[in-house]
């Protein structure tokens, strides 16, 4: 990536835990095979909030030890779309002016490695043995005016999709990928055939939980019970509008409620989307034996390891997931991102309703980290340039 001859740009730089500053730096230029993108919209992910607050650091050294932010600053932001500003030599899949989104993982294909690692070869590029992630593992992310990525990581956005919707295709892709892993697992209960799933519980009505709800209702066409448990009114109200049965954990005994509404049958499929360790505690009280439990939320800082013992005793089918990347179409397009954009284009998933707080400049964005994300009416924040 060249840095000279292209002028200057502004970026929001994380210098330490809870310490951000707006800085001027050289605007990058695309090398051969690269694309320069003007960032138009970018979502603020829970992962961004974790890194900002010092609760996580995925930028590791060669011994897999976190590199302190004070030693290596970061530019966060991995959910984004933008307009192509310029392309390097040899790039033909997009041209200046195109609206694009980006596969956040720098994998074997985008690095030009040969042979590719076993993960990229088998359609699991998000686990690339040599992979890095824009805005997460130290590579510059989208909280900047411009960013440069390899052409294989660029996905053109179909007509009719707004910049904000396009930016949020990444978290929807994560949900699609997690759902695929769950449905491929060797589970007792399935959406079709014998032993059908009849009751689903989503723990956490944040952006991810509400995306799982929409996926189940509108993409998977699941017509059974979907309980959505949370502690905040705004999230519970939106869950109800999107087709879920909201459960207010502030005044509800969850095991007793589940026993009543499922007529003693219990939950077949639990999606933990909150990232709270305490959310794991009631799962063994509400789930059926050998139920499927998807551990999707990240964090679980207050987790007591002993709470996993009932999961073993009940032989629960535990599934974990991370990232939206995966396999590729015949033309090299990342499959998950294409599917995500198609869900939005076809009106099956409403992404804009999740974005309760919008910011129109990088200078305003720190507010989501320091203040707005703590509000009771906050679900998701996003930078949306005017």
**Structural class per helix/strand content?**
alpha/beta
Beta-strand content: 15-25%
Q: Which CATH class of the largest domain applies here? A: Alpha Beta
Query: In percent, how helical is the residue content?
Result: 10-25%
* Main beta-sheet strand count, sense and barrel state: 7 strands, mixed
Number of strand segments:
17
Assigned CATH superfamily of the largest domain: Medium-chain alcohol dehydrogenases, catalytic domain
Low-pLDDT residue spans: none
Instruction: Report how far the terminal alpha carbons are from each other.
Output: 28 Å
CATH topology (fold) name of the largest domain: Quinone Oxidoreductase, Chain A, domain 1
In one word, what is the shape? Answer: globular
- How many domains would you count in the coordinates? 2
Radius of gyration, whole Å? 21 Å
**Mean of the pLDDT scores?**
93
Order of helices and strands: EEEHEEEHHEEEHHEHEHEHEHEHEHEHE
Instruction: Please work out how many helical segments DSSP would assign.
Output: 12
Quickly give the CATH architecture of the largest domain: Alpha-Beta Complex
Description:
24% of the residues lie in helices and 24% in strands. It is an alpha/beta fold. It folds into 2 domains: 8-168 and 324-384, Quinone Oxidoreductase, Chain A, domain 1 (Alpha-Beta Complex); 174-320, NAD(P)-binding Rossmann-like Domain (Rossmann fold, 3-Layer(aba) Sandwich). The strands form 4 sheets. Strands 3, 4, 5, 8, 9, 16 and 17 form a 7-stranded mixed β-sheet that branches. A 6-stranded parallel β-sheet has the order 12-11-10-13-14-15. Helix 5 crosses helix 6 and helix 5 crosses helix 11. The model has no long low-confidence stretch (mean pLDDT 93).
């Amino acid at each position: 990536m060249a840095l000279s001859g292209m002028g200057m740009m502004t970026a929001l730089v994380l210098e330490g835990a809870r310490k951000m500053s707006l800085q001027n730096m050289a605007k990058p230029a695309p090398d051969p095979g690269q694309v320069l993108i003007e960032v138009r919209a970018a979502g603020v992910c829970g992962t961004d909030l974790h890194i900002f607050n010092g609760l996580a650091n995925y930028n590791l050294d060669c011994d897999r030890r976190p590199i302190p932010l004070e030693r290596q600053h970061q530019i966060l932001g991995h959910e984004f779309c933008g307009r192509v500003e310029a392309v390097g030599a040899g790039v033909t899949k997009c041209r200046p002016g195109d609206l694009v989104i980006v596969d956040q993982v720098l994998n074997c294909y985008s690095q030009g490695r040969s042979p590719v690692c076993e993960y990229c070869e088998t359609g699991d590029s998000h686990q690339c043995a040599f992979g890095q992630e824009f805005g997460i593992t130290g590579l510059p992310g989208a909280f900047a005016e411009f960013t440069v990525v390899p052409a294989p990581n660029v996905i053109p956005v179909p007509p009719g999709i707004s910049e904000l919707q396009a930016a949020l295709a990444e978290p929807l892709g994560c949900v699609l990928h997690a759902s695929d892993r769950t449905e491929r697992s060797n589970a007792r209960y399935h959406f079709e055939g014998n032993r059908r799933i009849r009751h689903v519980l989503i723990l956490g009505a944040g952006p991810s939980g509400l995306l799982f709800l929409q996926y189940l209702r509108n993409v998977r066409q699941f017509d059974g019970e979907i309980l959505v448990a949370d502690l905040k009114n705004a999230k519970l109200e939106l869950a109800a509008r999107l087709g879920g049965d909201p459960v207010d954990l502030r005044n509800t005994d969850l095991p007793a409620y589940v026993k009543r509404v499922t007529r003693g049958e219990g939950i077949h499929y639990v999606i933990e989307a909150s990232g709270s360790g305490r959310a794991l505690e009631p799962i063994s009280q509400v789930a059926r034996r050998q139920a499927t439990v998807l551990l999707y939320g990240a964090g679980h800082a207050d987790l007591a390891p002993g709470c996993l013992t009932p999961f073993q005793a009940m032989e629960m089918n535990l599934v974990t997931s991370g990232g939206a990347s995966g396999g590729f179409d015949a033309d090299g397009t990342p499959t998950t991102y294409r599917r995500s954009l198609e869900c939005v284009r076809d009106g099956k998933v409403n992404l804009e309703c999740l974005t309760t707080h919008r910011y129109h400049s990088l200078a305003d964005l720190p507010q989501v980290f320091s203040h707005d994300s703590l509000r009771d009416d906050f679900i998701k924040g996003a930078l949306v340039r005017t």
